[in-house]
């Protein structure tokens, strides 16, 4: 199924520039895995990087640098141990987490070990991510979250279930890429819990909608 | 030394590298790209010796994987930019899962481009993109450069320029739309 809500162009551009904080980049990668349209845009963004890289004024390489490069070629071929590509495949297994999330949360949605943090809200936090916060949230069907706005940069992608807010209906694969100007009140759809992965770029403290939404519930 | 071969010549040089392991062709690619990749990494704040190593590693990747280069999918400049950026994120920023994820996404694209009639990137496109970058309003151009050439996040840019986060994002969005428009120009 094709997503209907996509990464913001400003987010794609920063992803391509290697300038997105790590936690946000994980969620962006997870969406790119599911979205050919955003992958096309990302290629366009990579082209911009390629041109900017080439536009710089530089001097010709020194003889020493050229000799060092040639010496390295002499040592080739070395046995190659390519990194195993992430488990990114085109297959519609609703239990399988996107490849980009697997290092942090494992492979299977069903196998996740949730922690209850408030009535109707469960959470799993990724540990050891360099910049920002990354977490999975599982919100009971038919829940109305408090009206809130957003602090810093936050990126949320739906993995299962759905919610509705003033921006529309968000189902599996959709991302909400929101900045400070949005004020909304998501309501999860009836039936199954809404499971989403969310990232913020704020170090250590919860900012934005998680703070305002969950702070009173979670007491942090 | 600044007169770069055009896209067609780059793919001929790459073919000579991949099929004949031709060192002269490789060194022509090296002479153009190595100093530019080096400057790119130095701008990102990478120490000189590390930058030298990463440039060598990027070019070695090219030497090893020249057969995977597909001129219909990306220009050599775009391809090498990705390699260098990925090495930077992997080795300088030390994000351990970035490389396998990028390889996975790449593989998806290979599957896809076999199906889709994707638009090849030509030297004509590159020229249009260069012109579009030069035509960006100064503030948009500044923000684009802070992203790509200084690797600053939206929040960092917002702090540094005392500009609301929403304005940073909308400026970048407008810049990207213009640049993408130039790449979709009718031919
Ligand atoms: Zn998308
Ligand atoms: Zn929200």
Automatic annotation (TrEMBL), chain A:
Regions that span the bilayer: none
Organism: Rhodanobacter denitrificans
Name by which UniProt lists this protein: Anti-ECFsigma factor, ChrR
CDD domains (alphabetical): cupin_ChrR
InterPro entries assigned: Anti-sigma_ChrR, Anti_sigma_zinc_sf, ChrR-like_cupin_dom, RmlC-like_jellyroll, RmlC_Cupin_sf
Leader peptide range in chain numbering: none
ChrR-like cupin domain ranges (all copies): 110-199
């Amino acid at each position: 199924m094709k997503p209907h809500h996509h990464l913001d162009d400003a987010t794609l551009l920063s992803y391509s520039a290697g300038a997105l904080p790590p936690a946000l980049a994980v969620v962006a990668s997870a969406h790119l895995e599911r979205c050919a349209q955003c992958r096309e845009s990302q290629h366009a963004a990579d082209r911009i990087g390629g041109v900017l890289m080439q536009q710089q004024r530089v001097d010709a390489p020194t003889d020493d640098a050229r000799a060092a490069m040639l010496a390295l070629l002499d040592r080739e071929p070395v046995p190659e141990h390519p990194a195993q590509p992430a488990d990114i495949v085109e297959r519609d297994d609703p239990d399988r987490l996107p490849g980009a999330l697997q290092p942090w949360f494992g492979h299977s949605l069903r196998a996740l070990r949730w922690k209850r943090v408030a009535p109707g809200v469960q959470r799993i936090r990724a540990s050891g991510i360099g910049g920002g916060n990354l977490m999975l949230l599982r919100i009971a069907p038919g829940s109305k979250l408090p009206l809130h706005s957003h602090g810093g940069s936050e990126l949320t992608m739906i993995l299962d279930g759905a919610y509705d807010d003033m921006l529309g209906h968000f189902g599996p694969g959709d991302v909400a890429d929101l900045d400070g100007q949005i004020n909304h009140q998501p309501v999860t759809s009836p039936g199954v819990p809404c499971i989403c992965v969310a990232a913020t770029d704020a170090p250590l403290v919860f900012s934005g909608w998680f703070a305002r939404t969950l702070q009173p519930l979670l007491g942090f | 030394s600044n007169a770069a071969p055009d896209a067609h010549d780059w793919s001929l040089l790459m073919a000579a590298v991949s099929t004949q392991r031709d060192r002269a062709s490789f060194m022509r690619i090296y002479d153009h790209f190595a100093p530019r990749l080096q400057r790119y990494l130095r701008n990102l704040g990478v120490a000189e010796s590390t930058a030298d190593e990463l440039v060598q590693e990027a070019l070695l990747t090219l030497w090893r994987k020249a057969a995977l280069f597909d001129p219909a999918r990306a220009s050599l400049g775009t391809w090498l930019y990705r390699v260098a950026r990925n090495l930077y994120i992997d080795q300088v920023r030390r994000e351990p899962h970035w490389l396998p994820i990028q390889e996975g996404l790449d593989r998806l694209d290979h599957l896809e481009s076999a199906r889709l009639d994707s638009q090849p990137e030509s030297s004509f496109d590159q020229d249009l993109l260069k012109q579009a970058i030069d035509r960006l309003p100064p503030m948009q151009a500044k923000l684009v450069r802070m992203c790509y050439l200084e690797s600053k996040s939206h929040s960092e840019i917002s702090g540094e320029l005392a500009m609301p986060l929403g304005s940073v994002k909308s400026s970048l969005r407008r810049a990207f739309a213009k640049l993408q428009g130039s790449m979709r120009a009718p031919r």
